[in-house]
Amino acid sequence: MNFSIILASRERPELLTNFIKSIKETTQNINQVEVLVGIDHDDLVTKKVADKLSREYPFVKFNARHRSPLLNEDYLNWQYRSFSKGKYLIIGNDDIIFETKNWDAIIVDKLEKYLANKPDRIAYGYISDALINRYSLGYCCFPLVTREGADALNFAICPEYASWSSDIAIWKTYWASNRVCDLSEVMIKHISIHSGLRERDSTNIHVQKLAAGFVEDPAMVEQHIQRLKRAIKKIARPEPANLLEKVRNK
């Protein structure tokens, strides 16, 4: 499996359906893509369409849990650790549309070339979105990380953030480790209040409240950076015993 697209959704059946349709319509090899949707047990609106969507789009899997205020850890990272199979993890949302035709083939080609001289296979993929184009931000809202990168950190997206700003922190972590691959040829359209394409809804208000009052701790981000750098260094340098064996065999 190449790709695991991981997201949470609540009471947005139309947006969720449009997102899933966009995956089907733009993917070259759908057999190498899985979409993991974290939902709440009490979300009857989404549950009503989940069975139909799963039958119509077999690459989509719904994972239900008790509602939690920790969007990143309890929905996104939970699904990464418990259910995902992809070599590449994309953090998504239910209000996005994949616009680039054959996005999966483009990413595999570019990312594998980038990883060719990186035996640890740790990397972050910088994917275009409406906010980047509008505000020229230095990070992307829907990043890709390799499974090796997520496994080194034990998370796909920074868990300390309840909702917003984790995308900034994960970019800082990989950027400081010199492991950012340009995948900006691929466009994900964000149909949200932030891009001016949709009005605010109850889910958006809830997620904003979750983020209120959180202040980033630079020391926390630095810990993530150092953990990733240690993982890169460990793979890049052979163990002394292996190095000695190579010398003896010459």
Secondary-structure topology with pairs:
Elements: E1 3-8, H1 13-26, E2 33-40, H2 44-56, E3 60-65, H3 71-82, E4 88-91, E5 96-98, H4 103-115, E6 124-129, H5 130-135, E7 144-146, H6 147-153, H7 166-176, E8 180-190, H8 202-211, H9 218-236, H10 240-249
Helix pairs in contact: 7-9
Model description:
- By secondary structure, the protein is α/β, with parallel strands linked by helices.
- The chain is built from 10 helices and 8 strands.
- The protein has helices at 13-26, 44-56, 71-82, 103-115, 130-135, 147-153, 166-176, 202-211, 218-236, 240-249; strands at 3-8, 33-40, 60-65, 88-91, 96-98, 124-129, 144-146, 180-190.
- An 8-stranded mixed sheet has the order 3-2-1-4-7-6-8-5.
- The longest helix is centred in the last third of the chain and has 19 residues, at 218-236.
Percent helix:
40-55%
SS summary, helix count: 10
Low-confidence spans: pLDDT under 50, at least 5 residues? 243-250
Name the helix and strand elements from N-terminus to C-terminus, one letter apiece: EHEHEHEEHEHEHHEHHH
The first-to-last residue Cα distance is 39 Å
Radius of gyration computed on alpha carbons: 19 Å
